[in-house]
Design a protein that fits this description.
165 residues; eleven-stranded mixed beta sheet; mainly beta
Length: 165
């Protein structure tokens, strides 16, 4: 079963549902400053240190060509450090409302398998911020300091090589 995390931004007030509904998808509704375009590439990295353990988690999001309303997006992940692995590329789905810049994305069993067997970075939500033209991934993890939000900026070229999904 998949739930949808909905952030409603109206007049500066953010309404967030209870955590038990934060599962694998998120919709952001806001003024459509910079609409999502295809092809689009987004990249971000998160460095986490805990004692002598250091990990850098790399994530990239891309959308299938000419898919700007609904279709396929790809989440590529790679870990460097003590538990280096990847890169891996998972096929996910999305819908996008260009009139509101609202994005609803659903991750796949592939993403959860990579989190379980490799990164321990479990994606709980995917978002699009039209004002900043950024994507975001929210995570839970057993590693202290790893949970939270990673912002991915639009880029012309990815600094990691992602295999075909």
């Amino acid at each position: 079963m998949r739930a949808v995390l909905v952030f409603l931004i109206v007049g500066g007030v953010v309404s967030i549902p209870p955590p038990n509904l934060w599962n694998r998808a998120m919709t952001v509704i806001s003024d459509c400053t910079s609409p999502l375009t295809s092809p689009s590439l987004y990249y971000g990295a998160k460095k986490v240190s805990f004692g002598s353990i250091s990990e850098t988690f790399h994530y990239a999001i891309s959308f299938s060509p000419n898919s700007t309303v609904a279709g396929t997006m790809y989440i590529c992940s790679k870990s460097e450090g003590m538990t280096a692995c990847g890169p891996y590329n998972c096929t996910d789905s999305f819908t996008y409302d260009p009139s509101t810049c609202g994005l609803t994305a659903s991750t796949s069993a592939c993403d959860e398998n990579i989190a379980h067997t490799c990164t321990d970075m479990h994606i709980t939500a995917v978002g699009f911020n039209s004002e900043l033209d950024t994507m975001s991934l929210n995570f839970t993890s057993h590693m202290p300091g790893a949970s939270g939000t990673l912002t991915l900026a639009r880029t012309a070229r990815l600094p990691i090589t992602c295999p075909h999904a």
